[in-house]
Amino acid sequence: MSFRQHYKLVTKQAIRWFPGHMGKGLRQMQQKLKSVDCLIEVHDARIPLSGRNPEFKNTIGGIKPHILVLNKKDLSDNKMHSRISERIKETEGIDHVIFTNCKDQQCPGIKKVMPLASDLIINSNRYNRTDEKDFCVMVIGVPNVGKSSLLNVMRNRHLNKKKATTVGAIAGITRSVMQKIKISEDPLIYMIDTPGILEPKIKDDEMGMKLALSGCLPDHLVGEDLIADYLLFWMNSQSRFEYVKHMGLEAPTDSIVEVLIAGANKLGKTKKLKTYDGSITVLPDVLMAAQFFIRAFRNGEFGKVNLDRDAFR
Ligand SMILES: Nc1nc2c(ncn2[C@@H]2O[C@H](COP(=O)(O)OP(=O)(O)OP(=O)(O)O)[C@@H](O)[C@H]2O)c(=O)[nH]1
Ligand SMILES: [Mg+2]
Fold first, then answer.
1. What number does the ligand 1 atom closest to the CA of 71 have?
2. In order of start, what are the domains of the chain with their CATH numbers?
3. How far is 290 from 244, CA to CA, in rounded Å?
């Protein structure tokens, strides 16, 4: 069986999602910078090298201490974590990379975030904020990576308080820069949650698909069939054939149509379609099959992954 060697986006339009709240959010974040002592950039550990918004570096990064939190560690291939940290340090000069799972209070990475942030702030030049007793940390990142979850888990851990900001499985839950929220009493630390922001134009198609597969854009906007096709391409390229059984196939294939039809048959899902002469045709529900395929990946049913794995060969 031979598979595609390279991924090529079949649509003419590039992957792009930059609704109004993102531009506004970025401006609000710039305005808030004066009252911030440290930036915590959250990203998805399954795409450690791809898809981070370069605007953060250009417009808000630079002078404040910066921690990169690679979240959803529970879904990412942990054998690669130290190489990822080294690579990011080498290429970007970011010394502080922490892997976290926001669903686990006891995660060692979660325990490290705030002590590290306080240390960095104490040892930094706080400029206009030297006399302020409280520390203020802003979380930034692309959509759906777990920024609000991080704030909640910190608040819960240090103050034993329940959720303060809304979390959700679809991209674009937080819509604007929020009021600062207290997450620790001693030292007194506040955190500002912000909306997920993508770069206005994602130039690299494959990077766009990695973001889409990780849930950083709304699925329907990119198209579930397209996301499923990228997932199939990626799994085959890594010789990971867990999908074969899951989708009710007999053998690996490079054809997404075959995968989706087999999946729909396995699920017993059909769709009625009225033809031009008024008769009804019953077809396999490929949309449902695509959603079923993507969901399995996102739930970790195909194992832990690093979609940027090829960059480490
Ligand atoms: N498996 C796993 N899921 C997580 C983790 N952290 C957050 N999530 C889930 O990821 C989804 C997005 O989380 P949010 O905290 O809303 O992400 P966000 O970055 O604030 O998203 P926007 O506000 O839309 O930009 C939710 O379904 C969370 O439950 C994690 O460490 N592991
Ligand atoms: Mg949020």
1. 31
2. 20-192 (3.40.50.300), 205-312 (1.10.1580.10)
3. 14
